[in-house]
User: Fold this.
Amino acid sequence: MAESDIRAERLRKLQLLRESGRDAYPASSTRTTTAADFLDTFEELESSGKSVTLAGRIMSLRGQGGILFADLFDGSGRVQAVLQADTAEDADLFTNTVDGGDFVEVAGTAFKTKRGQPSVQVIRWRMLSKSLLPIPDEWYGLKDEEKKLRERDISILLDADLRAMVERRSRFWQAIRDFYLARGFLEVETPVLEASPGGADARPFVTHHHALDMDVYLRISAGELWQKRLLVAGLPKVFEIGRIFRNEGQSREHLQDYTQLESYEAYSDATAGMKFVQDLYRHIVKDVYGKYAFDIGAHSVDFAEEWPVLDFSSVIKKQFGIDPLSCSEEAAVQAVRDAQIPYGESLNKARAVDHLWKSIRKTISGPAFLTRVPVYLEPLAKRNSDNPETVDRIQVIIAGSEVGKGYSELNDPEDQRARFEEQQRMRDEGDEEAQRFDSEYLRAMEYGMPPAFGFGFSERLFAFLENKPIHETQIFPLLRPRV
Assistant:
């Protein structure tokens, strides 16, 4: 039967309900127990003969003579409701108006069927929400891949594995929050709309603020510059878990709208941060998945193993024969061309060297730390005391990708000013991902900012642990509207 015909038939049944004096969409339920609690206390309920009221969606509905069997699902579990024509009130109305997918409330007593299945013997029933569209058969589910993403609500309803992933996603972020709170960090919220986007190299989304009559940007980091201003304000440990937005390409690892963690700890640095990050990741995987070893794409990753530390310049020299610290822009660009690495219309030294590194990164299973990145690739990190051409940055490498980054924060306002100026120069020459000059942040830093370790990662980590493309691990991924 066509969907339009099914909808018309259900509208007819809705009218029957209303003509009978029943509200098809009441404001509340009188449920007294959940499906899970009903099953947990079934023996006690059966022996006492106590009446209970359950509510849920009918996932399947089948009849046999004067008996109807309905499987009710309320999110906590599933209970079979048995409705007999000679014992249930308005049994004929139920038969003539109720369909699979409807939300109903049933009142009755606990009993076991002849097959020994714990069930509820229905005495009274009430419609809670009449469905007008049919849900797909549970056995077959949704088969069309686009429809699975577009009708995510039905996918989650029918797919127990997908529902479990949504629950793990919640536990993932809660495990992170618990880790930070247990170590004395303060959770904060910083602006999502900014007059000048900062804290990352990315193209922002732009919108207009009508009340202030000015263009503003959706943030591209989880408040990096704001959180560091909180260090200036005297808060020694802060973190934020929040949404960020980057108007860039989409891939298996990249989205434009996603959740990110960022944290900042005064009086710490990247060296101490390595131990902190190892403990954080191990806590996450153990708490959420109960294990340390994962297969991610073609990579096998064990978080319990010791994490090697890779020197950026050394790996570039070994692979491509150039020193990213001292080579010319022409040499860096030529190395990209010689290696036949795809790139955009133009390259500067920073982008060329970044392309070279990313081609190497794909081969590293990790977990590992990348260190000693050139200053020109990281405008917000403190210079390394042994080699001022590099910064004290750690980059977490897992399954060939960056899945976390942290550094000893730059707190020298003059050095920061010079780097902002260089980033602005790159921007003026056409590099849309170069950072903007932020005079307000510089002014805050000039009041004095303590040494600190900053760290962050996005929900890419969760996608990797699930071994799925990142858009499939979002609850409601962004899609083009139906044509």
The two ends are 24 Å apart (CA to CA).
